[in-house]
Every structure is written in C-alpha cells, then in structure tokens.
Amino acid sequence: MEVNRRDFLKIAGAGIGTLVLPSLDVKAATIPGNLENAHAMLYDATLCVGCRACQVACKKRAGLPYVTDENQMYEMPTDLNGDTWTIIKLYKDTETYSFVKKQCMHCVEPACASVCPVAALEKTTEGPVVYHSYKCIGCRYCMTACPFDIPKYEWDEINPIIQKCDFCADLQSAGQQPACSAACPTGALISGTRSEMLEIAHQRLADHPEQYFNHVYGEHEVGGTSMLYIAGVSYEKLGYPTLKNQSIPDITWPYMKAVPFVFFGMAGAMSAFYYWTHRNKEEEG
C-alpha cells in the first residue's frame, strides 16, 4: 500500500510523540519529592548468618526460577541476573568474614530512571524504583547508568526485558513488609521508613562502635538510597563502590532534556527527506 506525504507525516508524528512525551516526565519520575518517610530497608551484616531465606522468599514472591547445585538441593546462584533479584554473598579474608546482601538500592534519585528515554523506570513516592516492561524499548541505558550494576538483561530470552528487585512494591502498598525482610530469621534485614532505618542504624553504630565500620552506606551515596547498610568491615571489601554524594540525575538531566529535541529533529529530517525524494513523482502525477 502506497503512503502519501500527509499519511507519512501523521505516522511519523504519532511515533515520535510516543517516544518523546514520556521523556518529558523523566525528571518527575526520577525525583518524586521528600522520601525520608518512604519505604526503606536496613541490612545489618553483623547479624546475617547467610541462611539465604531472603533469596528464597524473593523468588517465591516474584515467581522466579531457582538455581540449584548438582544435587538439586540448594538455592545457589552465583550473582544477580534475570532470575535472581537478590543474593547473599560471603566476604572472607585471613582475619574476618562477613555476609553481604546485594540487590537494587532503590536510590532516592535513581540514575536508571534519569537516563530512560521512555520512563520505563520510575521512582514512586512510596520508595521503590519500579520497572514498566510495556514501555521499555530495550536501549539498556539503565544498565550503563546504574552505579551499582543492578539492572540485568534477559539475553537468553526471545522477548528480553530488564530484570531487577522491585522492592515488593505491591506488598508495601498493602502495608506489608518486603518478602525478603519478612523471611529474615535473625533481624539482619528490617524495614520501615527511611528516617526510622537511619535512626536505628546510627544508634547501633553509637552503641557498639567496636562492632561496626563507622558509616551507614546508602545514607548519602549518590544522593541517598532506600536500601541502607551497616557492617563490621569496610564496604569496599564487601564489593560496594565508593561514590560521591551528588545524585547522578543532577548530572544526567541537562543531557536528557535534549532528548525531545533530538527526536523532533529526526522527525523533521525524515519529513524533509520524504518530501524531497517524492517531489518529482508528485509533480509528474
């Protein structure tokens, strides 16, 4: 079926509008406001016994497949991936050891949402950073932007999407704990508001300075996170990056503002190209 110039412009305009309009809301989706009273979790590595109950609970709630050993007995993933949204790892040297929980940090101002051109990732006012797969165009900018290397792509799937912890947004909206914290038998993982978790963390550091590394990880890193950590060894040893306090969206937003203009420019260029290549044909007709 032949498409005339007017139809082409309508189709191009609709397509570009679909891509551009969400990007105009990127900053709003990234920074929803004061999140000190939003949902958060505190992980105390000194109380973790490595039972991995949180891993199992996460997979059960999200319907993710289990990764087992050769005897099909244990939940044994080696790292975060499309089927594993949280994982317990072990750090050990000649003097000490510590378990550590890895998952999405649910940044207060998430880098992943700030670079997504179609707002497939969104920071909700309740605290979680959620992913809308139906919006995703597969650009994987979120994977590049995340300072914690969290979003994972389903490389082996026919219709791949991004996978990561959603902070049990549905459970928390219903007034329940995230599945992982509810399953923790030792109190190593607790949930509440961000201000409550910070208060508890600092109280533990003050009460037992000999037991903890004197820093609450996630309080200020990249503008703050909703996952907070205290531990008995340095966070660098536990595999966490040393980051500045400035939020990444403060850096990326000036560049993301240019996205709509780039798309509009593409639409204009395509329209001009169509008109130029079909001008002679229309004149002959």
Compact summary:
The chain has helices at residues 5-24, 26-30, 53-62, 111-115, 141-145, 169-173, 179-183, 194-207, 249-256, 259-284, and strands at 39-44, 87-92, 97-102, 121-123, 129-131, 152-153, 162-163, 189-193, 227-230. It contains ten helices and nine strands.
Going by CATH, the architecture of the largest domain would be 2-Layer Sandwich
Order of helices and strands: HHEHEEHEEHEEHHEHEHH
Residue share in β-strands: 5-15%
Considering DSSP H and I runs of 4 or more, what fraction of the residues is helical? 25-40%
**Number of helical segments?**
10
SSE class? alpha+beta
Would you give the CATH topology of the largest domain? Alpha-Beta Plaits
Cα radius of gyration in angstroms: 23 Å
What shape does the CA trace take?
globular
CATH class of the largest domain: Alpha Beta
Q: Count all strands and give the number.
A: 9
The low-pLDDT segments are 1-31
* Domains, number: 2
Major sheet details: 3 strands, mixed
Strands of the widest sheet, in order across it, are 8-1-9
